[in-house]
Amino acid sequence: MGADKIMVWNYPTNITGLGSILVYANGITNGYMGTTLAVVYFAVVFFIIGANDRALITAAFTSTVISMMLNIMGVVDSSLIMIFTALTLVGMAWNWTKN
User: Fold this and answer.
1) C-beta separation of 81 from 68 below 8 A
2) Do residues 85 and 64 lie in contact, with contact meaning Cβ atoms separated by under 8 Å?
3) Distances, alpha carbon 57 to alpha carbons 11, 15, 36, 62, in Å
4) Is the pLDDT of residue 18 over 80?
5) Pick from 80, 81, 77, 73: which is nearest to 24 by CA?
6) Quick check: helix, strand or coil at residue 9?
7) Is 80 exceeded by the pLDDT of residue 63?
8) What is the pLDDT confidence band of residue 15, given thresholds at 50, 70 and 90?
9) What is the average pLDDT score of the chain?
10) Is residue 7 very low, low, confident or very high in pLDDT (cuts 50, 70, 90)?
11) Distance between CA 90 and CA 88 in Å, rounded?
12) 4, 23, 66, 94: which has the fewest C-beta neighbours closer than 10 Å?
């Protein structure tokens, strides 16, 4: 039994930059790589800033921008952009009601 019969994913071909590596890694992980990158980024920024209303606005908005870039590369769905946009609006409403 050779190594080509054990592997369950395609060999990397024509990888010319970071975008190609992300698309290849996302294919191997069945589409979870891009979503995981965006959600982990959101969580880290949210907790580093302080887990308050302004942290939610900042983390969700920057995650929206990152999700748009990942969507252009074909790594995430547009539904993730809508989720982060909704979280941005929730943070803005939280900030508005607090003030």
Assistant:
1) yes
2) yes
3) 40, 35, 19, 8
4) no
5) 73
6) coil
7) yes
8) confident
9) 83
10) low
11) 5
12) 4
Domain ranges of the chain: 31-98
Residue 87's CB is within 10 A of a number of other CB atoms, namely 19
Q: 13 phi and psi, to 5 degrees?
A: -130, 145
Residue 54, Ramachandran bin (φ over 0: left; ψ between -120 and 50: alpha; else beta): alpha
The confidence score (pLDDT) of residue 34 equals: 84
| The amino acid at 99 | N
**What are the structure tokens assigned to 53, written together?**
């209303």
Q: Judge whether residue 2 has pLDDT over 70.
A: no
At position 96, the amino acid (one-letter code) is W
Amino acid at 24: Y
